[in-house]
């Protein structure tokens, strides 16, 4: 279903990332040639995975994908053959993994993992941030994004992405929220052929769309005509970010919430409505983990996340061939596990899982 070719990396430059002295970070712009079948109707909730040929269309395009590559500068690598591939969520950018604000050392997973000898590549989705933004939001679907992600993972294994950096033998995908759905879609399509040697899905559980609380979503051009007035109306954004944080306002900084609202980006209608693809069983054979906050207002209403054993049993059904499977509930964290005062707990979990999946 998916065909995609990736050309050589270009436009390398130093950038400042809130990451501390132990992390050396650089920007990358990566041209990706995409040849993929996507639904004609971007509101197809299964992203074309259950569609017949007549309801699909072929998308051929070249997109520039922006990313930030960080590697340990002063700490010996835990395993020089392993890299983390970081994928942000809906209406976020790569900065979710390293927000450059006051108290940043609490929030930068790129820095945290650098301190522990782990390199990472955090990308902007096609259509988001500094990556190419198609004129038609209907081109920005999970099939498109998954093809890009898989080919980038293969590129990380096949060529040097930065002078002095050898190709990696293992790529561990870490997604957040819709970024987890993206990695899930890639696993559905690729199965045992997946280039990802392990998947960590944060802010992601099986959920029926009609059980979600009302989301503060609107057309991006209506929200900010000065910034997004020329966009296709099917590029969306949020009017508020509060739902992404825990129920207790004492668990996060009001400065972070203001920063989050100020730096929000866009997402396509497909990236919002095609989330049910994560209810389909996969043939992926690598190790899987899901990490969710106990105070996640989207995924953990009431007492849903108190019974971790029940969550494990329910979620594992969709990953029957996985090498291992685990659900971790981060106590006190909200949906955006990286952005509250408790971030170090999930960060330690991510590092533990990456090291576990790398052996």
TrEMBL record:
Give an example GO molecular function.
hydrolase activity
Entry superkingdom: Eukaryota
Give the signal sequence positions: 1-20
Q: Which InterPro entries match?
A: AB_hydrolase_1, AB_hydrolase_fold
Q: One Pfam annotation, family name?
A: Abhydrolase_6
| Keyword Hydrolase part of the UniProt annotation | yes
Q: Where is the AB hydrolase-1 domain?
A: 86-339
List the keywords (alphabetical).
Hydrolase, Signal
Q: Does the keyword Signal apply?
A: yes
What's the name of the protein? Alpha/beta hydrolase family-domain-containing protein
